[in-house]
Amino acid sequence: MVLFGVVDQSARRTNKNINAAFQHFKLLVVTIAAVSQA
Predict the structure, then answer these.
(1) Which superkingdom does the taxonomy of this entry point to (predicted)?
(2) Cα(34)–Cα(38) distance, rounded to whole angstroms?
(3) pTM for the complete prediction?
């Protein structure tokens, strides 16, 4: 049971990292679009 909790926690941490990377990518796209407009 403990091992499953550790594996589940690791999977969630990976998803959070992927989500954070995706958020940064979206911010980069918006920044590039804003700079292009200026």
Answers:
(1) Bacteria
(2) 6
(3) 0.57
Query: How many whole angstroms separate alpha carbon 26 and alpha carbon 34?
Result: 12
Q: Is the CA virtual torsion 23, 24, 30, 33 positive or negative? A: negative
Q: What 3-state DSSP class applies to 4?
A: helix
Under DSSP, is residue 17 helix (H, G, I), strand (E, B) or coil?
A: helix
Joined together, the tokens standing for residue 4 give 């499953």
pLDDT 10s digits, 3-21: 555 556 666 777 777 788 8
Pairwise CA distance, residues 37 & 31, whole Å:
10
